[in-house]
Amino acid sequence: MMRLALLFAALLAGTNHGGAATLDVAWLDGGNVRSVQLQQETVAGGPAVRADTQVPLGSLWKLFVYVYASDTGVAMPDYHCTGRVPDEAYCCDPGQRIDADAALAQSCGLLFQPARLMLARGAWQAYWRRLLGGELHGELAWLSAPERLVPGQQVRLGTLLRVLGRIPPASREHAEAALLRTVLDTRGAGSVRWFGNRLRVKTFTWHRADRPQQRLGGAAGWLADGTPVWFGGDDSSSGIFKRWAPQLAASLPPARGAGSDPDAGCVVVDFFTRYPIARVDGPDGPARSGTLRGRHVVRFENGQRLAFFGSGDMTLLRDAGGRLRIQGRFGVNEYVARVLDREADATQQEAARALAIAARTYLQQNARPVAACQQIADSSATQRVSPNPASSAALAVARWTDALVIEGAQVRYHRDQPGPDVLAWTEARAQARSGLVFDAILAHAYPRGSLTILGAGGQRCSRLHDNEAWLARMLPRWERVLLREPGYERPAQLPSVCALGSGAPYSEQSRGRVFMRPLATREDRITLAHEYIHIALRRHPRGQDEAYVESLARRIADQGAGSL
Known about the structure:
The structure is a single chain. Strand 15 (305-318) and strand 16 form a beta hairpin. By secondary structure, this protein is an alpha+beta fold. The chain starts with a strand and ends in a 7-residue tail after the last helix. The strands form seven sheets. An eight-stranded mixed beta sheet has the order 13-12-14-15-16-11-18-17. Strands 3-2-10-9-8 form a five-stranded antiparallel beta sheet, sandwiched between helices. A three-stranded antiparallel beta sheet has the order 1-22-19. The longest helix has 18 residues, at 349-366. It is globular, with a radius of gyration of 26 Å.
């Protein structure tokens, strides 16, 4: 996460012209490796990197461990920093913890050590053989055992990209979410202005095998559409981003459609809430209740009328009182794009990107949760939403800024009246025309705000220290019972207990985290015991037997419960 106010001045300071003289960029296109070499204007470059070029794995080994663990349910408990291990500098301050998502983005290798996660070679090999469709020898020998994943391991570039390409969207979902942070607040901090949400890459800094004194830095992972990508040059990974971000962004292949998950989320929009509807006419006369397709005209009781085109995502309803209502159901990007079409336009790209992020943030701050969706009215009191399908230009802006939101400020915007934590559209357009980029426009409008990723790597953990202390105090007593239960394994580290914002308590068994409310009642104690048992029995079939887990939790929860 980066402070927008601090970046506002820093990002205007210009480009760093030191560092690598060339940058190799490669990606997979239909099974073939494409590559280009970027050069400084005054430097003559060599040939572009080839598929058979040997490159060091560097910190990329952590990405493969993360994908395997998250896909197979192997626990990745938080790492606790003691201050006694030098490499903890990449992880957290003494006395603090870091979770797997943050560790991947920050390159905290201590959390991913195969011995710490107790990675079994047989299960590891079976997973990668299934995923890659063959034996792990020859070009794939480096994947044959967890202990072979070391920074100095040399890998053919084409093989590396093809392995990344074989990881399906569902398996890389959590990794991509965590790696979106790279352009915000880790090695690529500040480069979000060039990439938006396009890069989901793990950074690395190592050295060239033929020139041990020369660093090789860069990153590898995926673009938003799932394209595997790698880039590297003679510098640290942070130096590569500082020097090459604008040129690198321009050199990346164009997006292939909307990506593997083109429009996640669900937004229910109540249209025209302030204007009672008299009737709705469709292509064949008065519209009936149900899905709206084709051109329609809504006629309001005040005599006004409005034409719109239904594409199957809007519904005509009649409430209990007989009044007509129109409701839409969209993905988040479609919603943001419709807001952009209705409240402004996408012609001034940087201003449009800023407003798209503001609109997405406003949705998160003001929508009502309804089942698995967010519900909000189409109204000048909230955000106005176009009843027509989003324009291609607005949708491109929404997708480019996908998942980017602002935290730390209550976001508002207005057409032409700026104010505290208010983005004025006319002012944003003028700023864009003068050369400001969207993050600088946002820094001006929301100086207390921070750009961050919406839901990166799942729900954030705001730790409940009293709950954790009570669990640690009770566990020795509980284990008088639990150690006799088949399949019980005490976690290497006690689970983190995190504050639950809404909904029912649950556990993230692969991460060793429990989401619940502060301890206040006996039922809260039972809940914590219940979720702990799920984690401790995660490798045993009875760990998924809710009746058994609940019965066992009630047996142990009151044993010497003591004070809360």
